[in-house]
Amino acid sequence: MAEIDAGEILPNEHVQQMAADGTVTQMHRGHAYASEGDTFVIDGQRFEVTDVTHRTLGDLTDEDARREGSEDLEAYKRRLERVHDEFEWDPESDVVCHRFEPVGE
């Protein structure tokens, strides 16, 4: 268990604010950037990583997309294509899901 920078899991200030607001409660990344039990702080609020799971893009659901701040899976796919140069949705691509929740001090 370690204290990590929020930017390790949440790639930019906008997404970090969405997590602080409770809109984003998980983030898929290409690699594991944290371990279960790691913590990070956004605007004075501490969050704990509660689950780190290896998956593929094809495993993602509308619920996963909503947990990452998108309306549904199609909107999530469009967002990824918009923010990543030369991104192509490949259902076989490996990703790592980082779930987190706020914790009391």
TrEMBL record:
All copies of domain ASCH, residue ranges: 46-103
Top-level taxon in the UniProt lineage: Archaea
InterPro entries: ASCH_domain (IPR007374), PUA-like_sf (IPR015947)
UniProt-listed CDD domains: ASCH_yqfb_like
Protein name in UniProt: ASCH domain-containing protein
Higher taxonomy: Archaea, Methanobacteriati, Methanobacteriota, Stenosarchaea group, Halobacteria
